[in-house]
Write a structure and sequence with these properties.
The protein is an alpha/beta fold. The protein has helices spanning 4-13, 20-36, 48-65, 85-91, 104-117, 128-131, 152-159, 178-190, 228-233; strands at 73-77, 96-101, 122-125, 141-147, 163-173, 193-202, 208-216. Helix 1 (4-13) runs parallel beside helix 3 and helix 7 runs parallel beside helix 8 (178-190). The N and C termini lie far apart (45 Å).
Length: 237
């Protein structure tokens, strides 16, 4: 379904040398996504080139800008149809991927996808703020990431409680306003993290993107994360 030439061109731009076998898995991913999307709304992007660039390549750029160690524990918060988590897993089979989402219909697709592609991930139907309160997930991950889930200050409270001290929170966003970045950095500081890197780049289509990398330098105070209603109505500033 997807263009092999375009896929490998995107992978090269993301600094990756992927195999033909990996391409075949991404190609099957695209086919299954398009078919499944006809019964469950997973994405508005269903054309082959759009899936390749705006989903697959966009997800893989995380591997260019974030140094993720071998066999790292990585969680994708609000994974939806598997972006970026499933793409990271297909490109880096060594990673131990956990996919969180509060919508089980989307996770049913992920379970189906893992079975079809013969890969393994931990798939958890839970809200991120609830996961951050549970001992099996709180401060257990080397990397937490999320793609376009919420404003940076809210997203920090959803994700940083999941990251172990010494680990990283790496949200994937459209370019941030100065105000959102300021509020996000302040929220991250409250939660025990500091901004270490900030990457602005473009997808092959020219669409601008931004990845921020926060290092977890101390434990998150026990009162965080708060309940979702409080996070929404009174986000950290």
């Amino acid at each position: 379904m997807i263009s092999k030439e375009l896929f490998f061109s995107c992978a090269k731009e993301a600094g990756l040398a992927l195999s033909d076998e990996t391409f075949q898995k991404f190609d099957k991913y695209a086919v299954l996504l398009k078919e499944y999307n006809e019964k469950v709304n997973l994405t508005a992007i269903t054309d082959a080139d759009g899936i390749t660039v705006k989903h697959f390549a966009d997800s893989l750029f995380l591997l260019k800008h974030v140094n993720i160690k071998n066999e790292a524990k990585v969680c994708d918060v609000g994974t939806g149809a598997g972006f970026p988590g499933m793409c990271l897993l297909l490109a880096r089979s060594d990673l131990r991927i956990t996919l969180f989402d509060s919508v089980n219909k989307k996770l049913e697709f992920i379970r189906f996808l893992c079975n079809e592609l013969d890969v393994q991930a931990e798939i958890i139907n839970i809200r991120a703020e609830n996961a951050g309160k549970q001992t099996e997930y709180r401060e257990k991950f080397d990397i937490a990431t999320a793609r376009a889930v919420a404003s940076l200050n809210k997203l920090s409270e959803y994700c940083l409680p999941l990251v172990k001290p010494g680990g990283y929170f790496a949200p994937m966003k459209a370019p941030l306003s100065a105000e959102e970045k300021k509020n996000g950095k302040s929220a991250a500081a409250t939660l025990g993290a500091k901004l270490r890197d900030d990457f602005l780049y473009e997808l092959p289509t020219g669409d601008p993107r931004e990845i921020l990398v926060f290092e977890k330098i101390s434990q998150t105070p026990p009162k965080y994360p708060r309940n979702s209603g409080i996070i929404s109505k009174n986000p950290l500033q």
